[in-house]
């Protein structure tokens, strides 16, 4: 009778070990995914910063061109 109990206990222990092993593998996969996502977030942040700088530069260029155009229109009105 006790042999059956030990067999059941052994089966449960083996099942627990298998479950723990699978969970550890899942944790490793999730860690890798997290690392990849963190890198993607950093790249996206860098791209965003670059786009913000470019946008600011283009706005400044647009402002300069608008001022030049206003100046030319002012000269044309004087003529």
Question: Would you give an account of this structure?
Answer:
The protein has one helix at residues 2-78. It is rod-shaped, with a radius of gyration of 34 Å. The termini are far apart. The chain is 97% helix and 0% strand. The protein is an all-alpha fold and 79 residues long. The protein has one domain (1-78). The longest helix is centred in the middle third of the chain and has 77 residues, at 2-78. Pfam families: ZapB. Residues 6-61 form a coiled coil. Belongs to the ZapB family. It is found in: Cytoplasm.
Topology diagram in text:
Layout: H1 2-78
Subunit structure: Homodimer. The ends of the coiled-coil dimer bind to each other, forming polymers. Interacts with FtsZ.
Subcellular location: Cytoplasm
Pfam family, one: ZapB
Order of helices and strands: H
**General shape:** rod-shaped
| Alpha-carbon Rg, integer | 34 Å
Number of separate structural domains: 1
Major sheet characteristics: none
The number of distinct β-strands equals: 0
Query: How many helices in DSSP terms?
Result: 1
User: Which runs of at least 5 residues are low in confidence (pLDDT < 50)?
Assistant: none
State the helical fraction. over 70%
- Percent strand equals under 5%
Mean pLDDT over the residues: 95
**Structural class based on helices, strands and sheet pairing:** mainly alpha
Calculate the terminal CA-CA distance, rounded to whole Å.
115 Å
